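Order emerges. For instance:

***
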Amino acid sequence: MKTQNKTLLTSLLAAVLLFSGCEHLQNPNQAEKSANKLEATPKAERKTLEVGTKPESVCRGFNGKLYVTMIGGNEPGDGAVYVIDGDKAKPFATGLNNPKGIAWVKGALITTDETKVMKINSKGKVSVLADAKDFPAEVEFLNDVAAARNREAVYVTEMSHPKRMFNPDGDREFWPLNSDHQNKLPKTGCVYKITLDGKVSVAVPSGDRRMPGPNGVTVTGPKEKPFLAMADFFTGNLIAYEDEKMRFIAKNLLRGADAIEFGNGVIYVSSWTQGKVISYNRKEKKSTTVIEGLTSAADFFFDRKANQLIIPDMLEGKLHFVPLVN
């Protein structure tokens, strides 16, 4: 493993939070720049870092460091959030069950944990931001987290339980599209908005066949008129929700879709089942492969400053740092 070269830059003020798998923001709010001091961002180089059991999602947080949700094993309370310190991953917040998406908002890390949304302060103390009973409908599988542009709320996907989406006789094999099995999916997938004082509301309603199980979510679009974009796990659809209307961005693009992030004319999407990340050219409607051959490409962090993706391979316990060519 190569050691990352460190270049000393003038101290940058924190919360110039990169559009990423953590924040999912394209136009960060400048008001929080003075919150913390960021570490210098070195030039990206391809490397792999072993971090532990089942890393799921990555973001930048306190002091500009990378934070990773770790699902852990099968025991209650063995989930955690780790911080990347140099080339080492260390426990930062413990006692979680199955933490998944993570975002940095208003001086705190926000992560989903099964049917709860948790808030983590700078000391690693965990508290409940929203419990299952706070949601307007039953939740089964809260997944990704994206920050609102004003960083006063987060968006959280309710994917519904993925076990219904798979053939139990296969190895991570989805039921076919347009099959009776798809028709029987509950269509409870949706997106919630949660304010930092724990108020929950519906941001994207459930019930649409195009989005039975949203996994990734991001905030995109013009500064004056942002909208939400989702990657659906079962169908592979990329969906936009704007002006209370849902529309296709791309149909059946990548089944097993996990993270979704918008770049310059392209959309980056990972597939947990296919172990790859693609770049989808929105104008040409064509895809190219960024990386493949992973076991389970999960919720990556789009590091715009260093022009790289930081991709968890969940089942292998690794983070892959992949420089982008464009």
Observations:
- Residues 12-323 form a domain with the Neuraminidase fold (CATH 2.120.10.30).
- The first helix runs from residue 180 to 183.
- The CA atoms of residues 260 and 269 lie 5 Å apart.
- The longest strand covers residues 88-96.
